[in-house]
Amino acid sequence: MRINKYIAHAGVASRRKAEELIMQGLVTINGQKVTALATTVKSGDVVEVEGQPIYNEEKVYYLLNKPRGVISSVSDDKGRKTVIDLLPEVKERIYPVGRLDWDTTGLLILTNDGDFTDKMIHPRNEIDKVYVARLKGIANKENLRPLTRGLLIDGKKTKPARYRILKVEPDKNRSLVELTIHEGRNHQVKKMFEAVGLLVDKLSRTRFGTLDLTGLRPGESRRLNKKEISQLHNAATQGN
Fold first, then answer.
1. Claim to verify: residue 46 and residue 21 sit in the same structural domain
2. Nearest alpha-carbon partner for 145 in 177, 188, 171
3. What CATH code is carried by the domain that includes residue 40?
4. What's the pLDDT tens digit per position in 123-135?
5. Deepest in the core among 61, 68, 124, 157, taking most CB within 10 A?
6. Whole-number Å distance between alpha carbons of 198 and 131
7. What CA–CA distance (Å, rounded) separates 74 from 65?
8. Residues annotated as catalytic (active site), given as ranges
């Protein structure tokens, strides 16, 4: 098995991130530094990443209803609570599939399957990521229409999105809008609404592909079943 795939299967990082670790000289096989991406791992080889031995684990997949104020990371140098802290019973080295801002709530998948992660987050697979945003300002077809054509955010155009106006409260100067995107760029939803003159006051991800948060309160999680995992794989294949 190629070294980047081995690292991904061990749940340390996605395959692309594994390639970065290799090129940075942070991976060894039997004590020898590896820098060639084509290097293969044989039975009995000892693989270490940043000095820590790694092993292939059973693949696991969890669905979390992320609460506000929790970091979408495996650790935090400032000592803040992370999503991993919310799943203390999980023994495998899981990590979040993509990220939600600390103040964004809702659906987050965690796994130790690097290939699955790549499939889920790559824009070409066009997996629906659905958010509900409470906005400062009055949303209407005119100011939301640019979202459906794509917007220039940080020098790069977004893919066309879909929206649905759920509620408008003129007396409070606020609106509730559902937005469906296929990407996961940094602060993307907030920046998209800001680009059309609306500021996000509250944001939650309510759906990811075929998954929703039915039965999960904030902070609660559950393991995905084989059918749900298969449906996500199929969604990625159809979008590609």
1. yes
2. 177
3. 3.10.290.10
4. 888 899 999 999 9
5. 61
6. 15
7. 16
8. 101
